Task: structure prediction
Amino acid sequence: MLFKCLSKSLNEKLSKLELVVKNAGSNSLYKNIKIDIINSLAYITSVNAKVCVIEKLEVESDSNFSFLVEASSFIRFVKKQKNGEIKIVLSDKKDSITIYYASGEYSCPAFDVNTFPMVYNIPDGGINVKMNDYVSVLNKASNYTEINELYPCIENVVIDIDDININIVSTDRNTIYRYFIPNQDKVEKVFIPVSNASSLLLDKHINKSLDTLSIKVDDTRTYFSTPDMDMYEIHFDGNYPNWRFVDEHFVKTSTYVFDKDLLVQALQNNLKVNEFDHCKLIFTDKGCGIMSENPMSGRSCKERLTALSHNGNDIICDVLCGRYLGIVKSISYNRIVIEHDHKSHFNKIYGENNKNEYFLASSIIV
Result:
């Protein structure tokens, strides 16, 4: 029972599983990688309490067989190999493997495949999306989630599809991030939760040049598939916050437009003075500024800004300075629009030429 492949190709697959292994914790159930050789295709599987990833690799093999190997040491060994052909042989007793490479051989224990956690089949159906349109957005949205034991649902990004739009949404209870595109293909209505771990895996470790990513969802899991990878994760407990209520009830009463670089500089200067407190936004027709005071050190900062345009009521509110700085920096446009709703005390922030992506950030009215 043997298979052959290039060490570089195997290393590329194992490197994509490394994050799953690292997040496995101390549970011995998740310390191994499972390799199934079926019709000259290797299915390399790693699983932890939340996520399962299956990488596919074409190999030369003499038969169909399966084995488990301790993940960390196996990945470490393959990483050290120069690119070249390697041969992996499973012993007749299926209790060890030997890896033959250009300058020698390496042996390590193999374990009973029946001790590996159950791996679920990927169901049929689902939706197909262009990876370049979604994967990077999912990872960006994960920056606006929160690790919260009481509300595990907000540790996730959601793809919320309705009749009009395909929405990618996240929230940390202070900010709602929303990216949307029209549902031109009339994809069926579905609510798809995606964890931060899966967002990172999809963004960093899949081939985005491939045309489509297939996404499926059932009552307990979300499934992702590409031609050379399958992945699924367990859903969170509880109900996701009703982001639509906040979004649909936002009524702008003020609109101000600022130069991005000047706005970033003003927020940075205030953050240096009072890193853990609010700063005050004062936007009026007579002038605009951002102010912060640190009662512990007695230091203060007052940054004046010139609005490129404005209309509506004045805005005077306290906001989380660091959070607003992160939002403005992440917007890839030179002109930043801040709309304000005086009733809900939310600010909508977006790039002037991109209304398909915006942030709804809460403020404290003064």
